[in-house]
Amino acid sequence: MTPMAMTFWDVADSSLLYILVIIGLLYVAFLAGVFLRKAWGHCLELGIPNTTVKKVIASSCTFSIVPSLSIVIGLFSLAAVIGTPWAWFRLSVVGAVSYELMAADMVGQAMGYSALTQLRGEPAQVMGAVMIVMSIGIIGGIVTNALFCKKIQTSMASFNEKQGGWGALFSGCFMMAMMSVMMPLQVYNPTADYGRYGHFNLVGTLTLITSAVISLLVTMIAKKTGAKWLNNFVLAIALILGMVAAVMWSAVFPA
């Protein structure tokens, strides 16, 4: 099969992409191991008992595995449209489901496709465009962190210390601003066609509201009952029940 004859899915699910992704993930895992060893050695130099270090590592692993359930769930939805290897790489190294789907959808719409599911039989160049846009779009954050993260972090810590409650409010507003950038396109997209609802994504909007209500309820239950461990499952629960809600709303309000 010549490169010109290859399709989007031939690249998205190719053995070569699997191999390249595995190499990349092994490299990242190696770096994590190196940093773990250096951090462990530094703790011992500071006089922290070896048993304490082991307990911290064990507890960190536990609290890292539980929230990752939401990432695994997101992997299934992302893999359905851009293939398993690339979705695996994006969510294992850098990226988030909401960003990845939005970036891929923007590429598809820019190339004239109203839905990501239409890309499977299209030319391989479409998959190349999706991969490039996803990668370039996320690099800005990485470069910013590499150059300015320390300065931003120390400035924010100093601001919070001086301003007290206003510092916490500022941080919360900043997170809301980030969400405000992504949410409008989930509700109304002038380049998308949602059937009889036009550019208004009714099912997506109802699913968004349902997921928000579920997150709020789980948080309230955790607070009322004192079950702080439940906070680690908020995202996973919201994703699972949000997917169920999406199916339900799609049946109630078909396009």
TrEMBL record:
Top-rank taxon, per record: Bacteria
UniProt keyword annotations, A-Z: Membrane, Transmembrane, Transmembrane helix
Signal peptide: none
Transmembrane segments: 16-36, 56-82, 126-148, 168-188, 200-221, 233-252
Species lineage: Bacteria, Bacillati, Bacillota, Clostridia, Eubacteriales
InterPro entries attached to this UniProt entry: DUF5058
Name under which the protein is recorded: DUF5058 domain-containing protein
Keyword check for Membrane: yes
